[in-house]
Amino acid sequence: MTEGLSSDSELATKNCKIRDVNQPFRCNSCFKYKCEMEELTEELITMKKIIQLLEEELNTYKGLTSARTSNDRSTSHVSSNPINDWEVVTDKSRKSNRTTVEQLPIPVTPITKCFNALHNLQNDLELPSNIQNHHIKNHHMKKNIFLKHNKAISSPVRRKTKILLIGDSHTHGCASELKKYLSPKYEVTGTIMPGSRIQNITKLAKNETARFSNTEAVIIWGGSNDINRNEKMKGLKYLNDFVNQRKNTNVMIVTAPHRHGLLITSCINNEVQIFNRKLHKIMKNKDNVRILNLETIREDFTQHGLHLNAAGKIKVVKLMSQKISQLFEAKKKHSIILKWVATHKDSSLINSIPKVISEDHVCSH
What we know:
The protein has 365 residues and is of the alpha/beta class. It has helices at residues 2-14, 28-71, 121-125, 129-153, 174-181, 198-208, 224-228, 232-245, 267-282, 310-327, 347-351, and strands spanning 161-167, 186-192, 217-221, 250-254, 289-292, 337-339, 361-363. Among the domains are: 2-64; 161-327, SGNH hydrolase (Rossmann fold, 3-Layer(aba) Sandwich). The N and C termini lie far apart (170 Å).
């Protein structure tokens, strides 16, 4: 028995938190019950503390919700259950595609009459028919006179003369410079086709000049790439076909430039001379064709000697503007004047001639 008590006392010191460990017990079961009672009391104390904390948190939460509902009662929707003071919160992250049925009323501004009715309206309606017809005739006469006066004053709209410039890389920047040296009655447009041959240039020119008339002109500048490929005869053939198809359009062809980057006796420069000579020969009998000869020197070209520099392009553009102004210059038609031969001796015939025509000359009709 003493051994059991000693062991129980050891357990008490280790497992059970008894205040007076030295207190004697009758048996082991009493000691166990005592330990269990101690544990239960401690658990009850802790549970009581937990319940107190939860009640405090619940009271604070209720105070916050009551304050929030009192402030936002006008906008928030509170549940109809009086026991549960829970607030219904909608999910704002989802965007509903449903349209709201209730819409705000659209304010409508009232419209009132700002002007009074004419006091003489009834009188005009009651006028006799002959007086009304007289007023209508006068109104139409005034309207016709006004329209005729405006037609006489208004100047007729003149259509601008179109000038189209199409060519290879030599034509770069020439269209803008040509506008400066021509009068405002000309409309200049340019198309650059670097590295293209006469076949491609004339093909584009056919499409662009399909509706051109004899009051418009197209300038073609090409041939250098055909000469480099030894195809000068093909280029001349395409030029001839284009001119034959556009007999009602004024055509200006620019000759191929000299290659200053090569020797004068080089084969390419010889081909350039042959090309320009045959071009003059083919276009000699074409009435609607003008050929522009490039009168340039070495200083008009860039360092490599193939393309024109700024000064050279200005020189060529000036020549173009002179040719265009000569081409579209209005030709004054004079009547053929013949000498008067007096076949009648009657002097009254000579005196009957009007004073506008002189006695020595008369216009043939």
